[in-house]
Design goal:
Blueprint lengths: L1 H4 L8 E6 H5 L7 H9 L11 H6 L1 E8 L6 E7 L10 E6 L24 H12 L10 H4 L5 E4 L4 E4 L7 E4 L15 H4 L16 H12 L4 E3 L1 H4 L5 H9 L1 H7 L2 E5 L24 E4 L5 E7 L17 H9 L3 E5 L2 E5 L4 E3 L14 H6 L9 H11 L12 H10 L7 E2 L2 E2 L3 H4 L3 E2 L4 E2 L19 E2 L2 E2 L2 H4 L3 E3 L12 E4 L4 E3 L7 E2 L3 H10 L9 E5 L19 E5 L2 E6 L14 E2 L3 E17 L8 E5 L5 E7 L17 E12 L22 E13 L2 E11 H4 L5 E7 L1
Parallel strand pairs: 7-8, 7-9, 9-12, 15-28
Antiparallel strand pairs: 1-2, 2-3, 3-4, 4-11, 5-6, 5-8, 10-11, 12-13, 13-14, 15-16, 17-20, 18-19, 21-27, 22-32, 23-24, 23-29, 25-26, 26-27, 29-30, 29-32, 29-35, 30-31, 31-34, 32-33, 33-34
Helix pairs in contact: 11-12, 12-15
InterPro entries: HET (IPR010730)
Organism: Metarhizium guizhouense (strain ARSEF 977)
Protein name: Heterokaryon incompatibility protein
Length: 725
């Protein structure tokens, strides 16, 4: 154990210590390591009926490993299947460094359990400013840099002020919860702008405790201004509020530092641990004294990344805070009664000696932030953001698109342009075919007389993680620095109808322009000539291709490169936006098209090899197999059948598709080897259909499916003016 604790950071060793009985049993002569391991696993917290030696018998192997992300050692207990004990908690261990220890050993710090070193925030900020470049300085997206706050809290004058041009400021990210706290309103805004107004004790309700503490920490960071939503957005000025919400990504991106109250459950939880600013914290740090004067520092950790963190925080579950985390460059994080700094190039923790050798986790946030730099459309990055975002919760479900507005603005260049109620217009026909990764629930607005948009046809109308056909949407790529397995499919979506979006039922509608899908069509039909920035190359110049061609049914002779992006190879040219380009973000409730419909019956569940959602056969009135349906609703409690199998479902065709008529390569269509599916040679051609139900002349999405093209074409189809709400 000691040898591993003293291992330099460059090495990432692990060591099997033995079984629970071997390591913790009474026959072991050394009791010091038993005390450390028992403390790290928190065996003292076991139920009274389970004694120490009995607990040891339920542990298989004990492994000690050193994590490269924070240089601490973790002891992991592999519990036997027969164990009645819940998985044991984790703790991180550091050796307290001594003068004669090697320089490349990263040691732990013994902390004051109540108070944080007041000099840490400024020291971390100054170190980042001095040592780091790139995204620590700014996001290189012109649109983001222009999104500045309208109002700021001046912590010197203790009032609201109009944000000075180009000023440095700190932003606050926290959870509102159900607390009643002071809000900026039209009725009190003039008073809030008076010097000293924020010191008044007469505000009812009062300024939130978290905001009050953040104002003090702004000073510790050497800053003067704070942006906090409750005070810097006039909450009952609807048009201005909408404008400010759309700028949220830029407001957090341009902040010098974002204070993240991850530990707080509501606006009055506060930011504990700074003397004369907030209440004392309660840091659970244990110091073990070993032979020879060695000290080992222990702190409890949570989650996959082994961070000191609170166990059940609301902050990581909220959609608003996901946007704030994603768009922030430099973060001062309060979590688990501990403080840490995260930026694009480093993570500094108060319980670890300062070093330049610890780097950020390669997690969803850091990988998705690369989208802010990308001018090459990144459908895969969009899906990663959406999967995480739509799994988060809202106090008011109708906020789903408002809370996404800032992200939409930030990533518009990386998704090829505008977003329509959360769906990128560049891939609109593909995005409309989204499907759930897990069970989803229809979002219902809580506020009465609410006119916010929760369309059934968009992911925003449903709560839960969703997926899209990344391979088909990214089929312009041949070789790139990006590599994701879900881009390896040969399935392709082909446009079939022309969509419009409508702000009201009476409006004539605006045609949606799927520019990337149209580029593919234009190129395949020979309607496009290369601009001067594009060059055509023979396949022999670069024989190896990571990704399947845009038309897997025929082998292309050429590929393309763009002069500004030489690291990418393309199967066909696409429109690439200029860095200064701006795009609209609109949230219409309705879309429409002219298409065809038919009625089919839900039948048996198709056994899937992997994934969600449940898949059911579709059969015609003669019980012939026609296709497969992924329903969002209408499944019985067993999950094995549809509730109304005797009732025909209305299906409307919205796209075409094709794939290899085989289950390989992965992923293939789950219905591809159904015994009743007509066999049609090497390629399976189908229509994408949407199951809809009508109410007051408006259709609502209930699921999507695929139907065999030749079986669908013989159904009794009729033309329909489809409007989805």
């Amino acid at each position: 154990m000691v040898r591993l604790l003293q291992t330099p950071h460059a090495a990432h060793p692990s060591e099997t210590l033995g079984t629970g009985k071997d390591v913790l049993g009474p026959s072991i002569s050394c009791s010091i390591h038993q005390r450390v391991i028992a403390s790290a696993l928190n065996l003292a917290s076991l139920p009274p009926l389970i004694n120490y030696s009995e607990a040891a018998g339920y542990i298989g192997n004990l492994t000690m490993l050193k994590d490269p992300n924070h240089a601490g050692a973790i002891i992991v207990a592999d519990m036997l299947q027969s164990s009645p004990i819940n998985p044991l908690p984790l703790a991180v261990l550091y050796v307290s460094k001594r003068p004669d220890d090697p320089e490349d050993v990263i040691g732990g710090r013994i902390l004051n359990p109540e108070w944080i070193d007041r000099g840490l925030p400024a020291m971390w900020k100054e170190s980042c400013t001095r040592l780091h470049n790139g995204l620590c300085k700014s996001f290189p997206v012109q649109k983001l840099s222009s999104m500045r706050p309208t109002w700021l809290v001046d912590v010197h004058r203790q009032c609201l002020i109009a944000a000075p041009d180009g000023c440095s400021y700190v932003a606050l990210s926290y959870v509102w919860g159900s607390q009643k706290t002071l809000l900026a309103m039209k009725s009190n805004h003039d008073l809030l702008r008076l010097a000293g107004s924020l010191t008044l004790a007469t505000w009812e309700p009062p300024i939130s405790i978290t905001t009050r503490h953040a104002m003090g920490i702004v000073g510790l960071l050497g800053e003067r201004y704070l942006w906090v939503d409750t005070l810097c957005i006039v909450q009952d000025e609807d048009s201005q509020k909408k404008k400010e919400l759309s700028k949220m990504s830029g407001i957090y991106a341009n902040a010098s530092v974002t204070i993240m109250a991850v530990q707080g459950g509501n606006a009055n939880s506060g930011l504990r641990g700074f003397r004369s600013i907030s209440e004392p914290r309660n840091l659970r740090q244990v110091v073990h004294f070993l032979n020879g004067g060695m000290k080992v520092v222990q702190l409890p950790v949570q989650g996959h990344y082994y961070e000191v963190a609170c166990k059940d925080s609301a902050w990581p579950t909220r959609a608003w805070t996901y946007q704030e985390h994603l768009c922030s460059r430099r973060k001062l994080i309060f979590d688990g009664d501990s403080l840490r700094w995260e930026c694009m190039e480093a993570v500094w923790r108060e319980h670890v000696e300062w070093t330049t050798r610890l780097h950020p986790h390669h997690d969803n946030i850091t990988s998705c932030q690369s989208m802010f730099q990308s001018l090459i459309p990144d459908f895969s990055g969009f899906q990663r953001i959406l999967r995480e975002y739509n799994s988060r919760s809202f106090t008011y479900p109708e906020d789903a698109l408002d809370a996404f507005a800032g992200i939409s603005s930030a990533i518009s260049l990386a998704v090829g342009g505008s977003l329509i109620s959360g769906l990128p217009a560049a891939w609109f026909d593909i995005c409309l075919l989204w499907s759930p990764e897990k069970s989803v629930l229809r979002r219902i607005a809580l506020a009465s007389n609410n006119n916010k948009c929760l369309p059934s046809w968009s992911w925003a109308g449903w709560s839960g993680p969703v997926k899209m056909d990344v391979a088909s949407g990214s089929d312009f790529l041949r070789n790139s620095p990006r590599l994701w397995m879900w881009m390896m499919s040969s399935a392709r979506v082909v446009r079939l109808v022309s969509w419009k979006y409508h702000e009201t039922l009476e409006s004539p509608g605006t045609v949606i322009q799927p520019v990337i899908l149209r580029s593919r069509e234009d190129w395949l039909d020979g309607r496009v000539e290369c601009t001067s920035e594009w060059t055509r190359h023979d396949i022999s110049e670069s024989p190896e291709a990571k990704y399947e061609t845009h038309n897997p049914r025929s082998a292309p002779l050429h590929f393309f490169r763009h002069s500004k992006h030489p690291e990418f190879e393309f199967w066909y040219p696409i429109p690439l936006p200029e860095p200064a380009a701006t795009f609209s973000v609109v949230n219409p409730p309705y879309i429409s098209c002219k298409t065809y419909r038919a009625w089919l019956f839900p039948a048996e569940r198709i056994r899937k090899l992997y994934g969600y959602p449940p898949l059911f056969s579709l059969r015609d009135k003669d019980r012939r197999w026609v296709g497969a349906l992924e329903p969002l609703v209408g499944i019985d409690e067993s999950g094995e059948t549809m509730k109304e199998q005797s009732t025909a479902l209305e299906l409307v065709e919205i796209a075409k598709g094709y794939c290899r008529n085989t289950t390989s390569p992965h992923p293939g269509l789950q219905e591809i080897d159904h015994p009743d599916k007509p066999y049609g040679g090497e390629w399976y051609h189908y229509y994408w259909v949407m199951w809809v139900e009508w109410k007051h002349g408006i259709a609502y999405r209930k699921g999507v499916g695929r139907v065999c093209m030749r079986m669908w074409d013989v159904q009794s189809r009729s033309e329909v003016d489809l409007i989805l709400g």
